[in-house]
């Protein structure tokens, strides 16, 4: 049976670790070849490539600093050169820097906005010509901090609110050829996370359980495949934002 992403190429940023890793493997499992972006996690990215190759798909690791527009453009050109097309862009690379009103520095502010908003925008800009050719899709990673606002993560919350608006304006600007959506994870735990996180998240979520990386990958898969949704932010938080 033909897989739904057979013949497609996905660029997943931050694909060496955590949620990006799970998403890259999920898209490969659905038939896509994958450009596995990393910045400092070369060993982990190599492991993801090996996992994708075991699934019978092609994968290549590609390093880039996503606060540099020059490196972003070079990354997209490398993907196009290696695979000949780009159908899916998943902007999952991000940082998560604590900062209160008092502790926020210019460096923290710039690092949050540059990584979490600037990088995804210029990736979308560089990939847009390729995505338009293939009627492709962009999936951005926001999070519930961009909706609720976290006083201990001010710069981060602002950056993720920016990602939500970026999703909406890109959806309008790139329609009808390209669909652009976002997910907003919350109350998600992964292997290795402190056990107190799960206890706290269970208390915060009306569903009284935490989400998993597979829940995130399932949502990304849906947004990649559905053809009548754009400009939407899919919240995955067990009802926390209620």
Which descriptors would you attach to this protein?
8 helices; Rossmann fold; seven-stranded parallel beta sheet; alpha/beta; 242 residues
Please explain how this structure is put together.
The structure is a single chain. This protein has 242 residues and is of the alpha/beta class. The chain has one domain: Rossmann fold. The chain is built from eight helices and seven strands. Strands 3-2-1-4-5-6-7 form a seven-stranded parallel β-sheet, sandwiched between helices. The N and C termini lie far apart (41 Å). The mean pLDDT is 95.
In brief:
By secondary structure, this protein is of the alpha/beta class.
Radius of gyration: 17 Å
Query: Which oligomeric state applies?
Result: single chain
- CATH-level-4 superfamily name: NAD(P)-binding Rossmann-like Domain
- Into which percentage range does the β-strand content fall? 5-15%
Count of separate DSSP helical elements: 8
Measured distance between first and last alpha carbons? 41 Å
From the coordinates shown, what is the CATH architecture?
Answer: 3-Layer(aba) Sandwich
Mean residue pLDDT: 95
Low-confidence stretches are none
* Text of the CATH class: Alpha Beta
Please outline the major beta sheet: 7 strands, parallel
């Amino acid at each position: 049976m033909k897989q739904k992403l057979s013949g497609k190429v996905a660029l997943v940023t931050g694909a060496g670790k955590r949620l990006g890793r799970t998403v890259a493997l999920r898209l490969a499992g659905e038939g896509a070849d994958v450009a596995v972006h990393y910045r400092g996690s070369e060993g982990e990215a190599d492991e993801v490539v090996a996992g994708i190759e075991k699934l019978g798909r092609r994968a290549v690791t590609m390093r880039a600093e996503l606060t540099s527009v020059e490196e972003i453009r070079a990354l997209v050109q490398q993907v196009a050169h290696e695979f000949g097309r780009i159908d899916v862009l998943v902007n999952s690379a991000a940082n998560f820097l604590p900062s209160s009103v008092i502790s926020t520095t210019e460096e923290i502010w710039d690092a949050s906005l540059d990584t979490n908003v600037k990088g995804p925008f210029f990736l979308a800009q560089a990939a847009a010509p390729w995505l338009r050719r293939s009627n492709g899709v962009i999936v951005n990673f926001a999070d519930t901090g961009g909706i609720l606002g976290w006083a201990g993560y001010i710069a981060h919350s602002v950056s993720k609110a920016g990602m939500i608006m970026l999703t909406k304006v890109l959806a309008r600007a790139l329609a009808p050829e390209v669909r652009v959506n976002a997910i907003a994870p919350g109350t998600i735990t992964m292997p290795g996370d402190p056990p107190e996180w799960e206890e706290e998240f269970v208390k915060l979520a009306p569903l009284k359980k935490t989400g998993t990386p597979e829940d995130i990958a399932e949502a990304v898969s849906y947004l990649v495949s559905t053809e009548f949704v754009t400009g939407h932010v899919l919240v995955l938080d067990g009802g926390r934002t209620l």
